[in-house]
């Protein structure tokens, strides 16, 4: 891997964007490495994934020089490059394990896509966010479903159209991130949160992610109520759920 680094112990994997001289801007080669890494990490022994950026920034979005070069190619090459990012974001969104993003410095465009496709986002108080695509004649197309799920359609109107940058406090207020911390405590906070997640049933964490994806955008109907009841009834019969219930009644830590 040239443009990312991956380290892990038995339970926590850390993936870092590694183009610090380019503010970790994404291009086709980095995106392909990210997709390859996610596939490998989805099948290894780790139970939580932390994503961060090396250097002074998390991710300044797409590499403008790369996009200009691709735009000069064939229509198919242009489409395939865009599809690579769309596929990466969906693979991150549907990743089977909890994903925590640690954001600092510039978090722009595609960087916001990575952040919102993950489950939990913690921002350093120095982080600066924005969707500057309109300033160069583009729109945040592939990242839009994930960003809009996080901040809502109304706020998307404002930030998609203005391209205005904003800080960590505003990101917290509009739901883009769930916590803000001092920059020098960002990694320790991420590890602390990962260790909190490790106390929970791995199967239940996977099921919780699936439940959010399935029920989050649906209307509340009798059919949805029935589906959620069936979901819980099935889950309660699994070995991990039985162990968790016994451990609670026996006042001990569950053996995951």
Write the layout of secondary structure elements.
Elements: E1 4-8, E2 12-17, H1 28-42, E3 48-53, H2 64-71, H3 75-93, E4 99-103, E5 106-108, H4 110-117, E6 120-124, E7 128-130, H5 144-162, E8 166-167, H6 168-173, E9 179-181, H7 186-198, H8 202-215, H9 222-236, H10 239-249
Helix pairs in contact: 1-3, 3-4, 4-5, 8-9
Architecture overview:
This protein is an alpha/beta fold. The chain has two domains: 4-198, 2-enoyl-CoA Hydratase, Chain A, domain 1 (Alpha-Beta Complex), CATH 3.90.226; 202-249. 50% of the residues lie in helices and 15% in strands. It is built from ten helices and nine strands. It has helices at 28-42, 64-71, 75-93, 110-117, 144-162, 168-173, 186-198, 202-215, 222-236, 239-249; strands at residues 4-8, 12-17, 48-53, 99-103, 106-108, 120-124, 128-130, 166-167, 179-181. The protein has a six-stranded mixed sheet with strand order 1-2-3-4-6-9, with helices on both faces. A hairpin with a 3-residue loop joins strand 1 (4-8) and strand 2. Helix 8 (202-215) runs antiparallel to helix 9. The longest helix has 19 residues, at 75-93. It is globular. The two termini are 32 Å apart. The model has no long low-confidence stretch (mean pLDDT 94).
């Amino acid at each position: 891997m040239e443009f990312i680094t991956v380290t892990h112990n038995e339970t926590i994997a850390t993936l870092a964007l590694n183009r610090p001289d380019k503010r970790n801007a994404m291009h086709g080669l980095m995106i392909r490495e990210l997709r390859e890494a996610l596939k490998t990490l989805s099948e290894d022994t780790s139970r939580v994934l932390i994503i961060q950026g090396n250097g002074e920034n998390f991710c300044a979005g797409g590499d403008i020089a790369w996009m200009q070069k691709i735009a000069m190619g064939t229509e198919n090459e242009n489409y395939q490059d865009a599809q690579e990012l769309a596929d990466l974001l969906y693979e991150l969104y549907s990743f089977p394990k909890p994903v925590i993003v640690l954001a600092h410095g510039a978090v722009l465009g595609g960087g916001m896509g990575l952040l919102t496709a993950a489950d939990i986002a913690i921002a350093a108080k120095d982080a600066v966010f924005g969707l500057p695509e309109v300033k160069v004649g583009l729109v945040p197309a592939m990242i839009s479903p994930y960003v809009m799920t996080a901040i809502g359609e109304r706020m998307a109107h404002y930030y998609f159209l203005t391209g205005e940058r904003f800080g960590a406090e505003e990101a917290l207020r509009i739901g883009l991130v769930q916590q803000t911390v001092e920059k020098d405590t960002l990694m320790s906070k991420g590890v602390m949160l990962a260790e909190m997640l490790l106390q929970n049933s791995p199967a239940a964490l996977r099921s919780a992610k699936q439940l959010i994806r399935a029920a989050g955008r649906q209307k509340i109907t009798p059919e949805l109520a029935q589906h959620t009841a069936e979901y819980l009834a099935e889950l309660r019969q699994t070995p991990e759920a039985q162990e968790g219930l016994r451990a609670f009644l026996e006042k001990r830590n569950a053996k995951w």
